[in-house]
Amino acid sequence: MTDMLVKLYALPPMPSIDATIHLRRGLAPEKHLVLDWVETHFSAYWRSECDVAFARQPVSCFLAIEDKQLIGFGCYDTTRRAFFGPTGVLESARGRGLGKALLLACLHDMYAQGYGYGIIGGVGPVEFYQKAVGATVIHDSTPGVYDGLLRKP
After folding, report:
1. Rounded mean pLDDT of the chain?
2. In terms of C-beta distances under 8 Å and separation of at least 24 residues, what long-range contacts does 31-40 make, across chains too?
3. Residue 131 domain-assigned (yes or no)
4. Which ranges of 68-146 would DSSP assign to H, the alpha helix?
5. DSSP H helical segments within the chain, as ranges?
6. Cα Rg for the chain, rounded, in angstroms?
7. 151: in domain
8. Contact 76, 109 (CB under 8 A)
9. Angle, CA 70 vertex, CA 51 and CA 52 arms, to 5°
10. What is the average per-residue pLDDT within 126-136?
11. Is residue 153 part of a domain?
12. What percent of the chain shows pLDDT beyond 90?
């Protein structure tokens, strides 16, 4: 999977989302709940990366919450500085613009932290990132920084 580059100084504004959804930065006391949720719904690898996001100051993990329940998350500065990800939205909550909102929350925060460019590592949906934030493919970026990642035997 390829990496993509985003100009953080040329981001679109935050999209509007359903008023029942609250988008905010994660808080340290809820770290254990978020990490358990990420592993349950996505993977242990993403849990590890999310753990790093909670160790940052400020926390570099954003949450989508509806009815006091976590329905999505997005992180940056986890495996590498200036990298966006991981990010995920519950399958039942997809199609409501949350993926784009979490992406933009993270990228706008990266810009506020002083980054000029962001990298989206190991991209699955290239077209989504091109359309959402004008990301461009970084040629010859496969396998990228995840090459040699330890896996369970």
Report:
1. 97
2. 33/70, 34/61, 34/63, 34/70, 34/73, 37/70, 37/73, 38/73, 38/86, 38/88
3. yes
4. 98-112, 126-133
5. 31-41, 44-55, 98-112, 126-133
6. 15
7. no
8. yes
9. 10
10. 98
11. no
12. 97
Please count the structural domains in the chain.
1
* pLDDT (0 to 100) of residue 51: 98
> Is 73 among the domain residues?
yes
User: pLDDT at residue 88 above 90?
Assistant: yes
Instruction: Give the pLDDT confidence score for residue 34 in this predicted structure.
Output: 98
Structure tokens at 120: 């989206």
pLDDT tens digits for range 53-85: 999 999 999 999 999 999 999 999 999 999 999
Query: For residue 139, what are its two tokens?
Result: 């040629």
Label the pairing between strands 83-89 and 117-120. Answer: parallel
Rounded Cα gap, residues 23 and 32, in angstroms: 19
Query: Could you tell me how far CA 67 lies from the centroid of its own chain?
Result: 21
Residue 114 has pLDDT above 90, yes or no: yes
CATH of the domain at 13: 3.40.630.30
Question: Half-sphere exposure of 13 toward its Cβ, with a 13 Å CA cutoff?
Answer: 3
Which residue segment(s) compose the domain that 28 sits in?
A: 3-145
